[in-house]
Amino acid sequence: MKNIKKRLAILNPTFSEYERGAKLNNLELINFMLNEDDDFSVNLKEIEANIDDFDSLFICNPNNPNGKVKNIEELLEIIIKNDKLLIVDETFMEFVHGEENYSLIKYVEKYNNIFIIKAVTKFFGMPGLRLGYGVTSNKKLINDIYTYKEPWTVNSFADTLSNYIFNDKEYIKSSKEYYLKERSYMISELRKIENMHVYDTDTNFILIELKDIRADELKLKLFKESNILIRNASNFIGLGEKHIRIAIKSHEENQLILKELNKLLGE
Q: CB burial class (10 A; 0-12, 13-18, 19+) of residue 85?
């Protein structure tokens, strides 16, 4: 983050490393809040009204922790019109059905004030590979990144595998089909359980707001009694002590967590 200007706006709740990275590099932070009551939508009027208060804007699309994808072309228009930098984390975009309708990759060559963050760790299930990359047509920004980055930032395993994983069309197709089907199943079954609110998602995780138990209490119970680990999402800016996030995994594992949640919350 050393290579971007000093005033950074972040749309919350979102991945906390944006804020941490900004603070480590002494950037001035401006926090905007997504509208939880409207699928965590972006308040474009608020951003436009405060456009002179920041130089760059971070947005996660699909967003983490709620997993909902947004069409952010209107936001892009505001950024372009005001000559700001839009930084978009699209690391979960591959899970989205019809991702080409939402990804801003198609605008990168046309506009040089877009920087898109991508990774193979999520969709391809390779967190240990540590392969992420950025996409932009802004040559100055690229040169600035090279000024600060470590000399060896891609390991040889990641370098080799990158020549193959993006060409595995069968894996990509079957994975998209699986998550589309399993998402629908999980959302439907979770909404049958009382004492929780289940948010819509387009990715491989689901945000839930509990009603009668705190997130830390449920996390501990599931771990001790069922050997299941969930994400306590209460530390996301804008979320509360009753928010949790669960992953969509194999069908058998999904059935297991549904069974245990029913046992703890459904009766």
A: buried
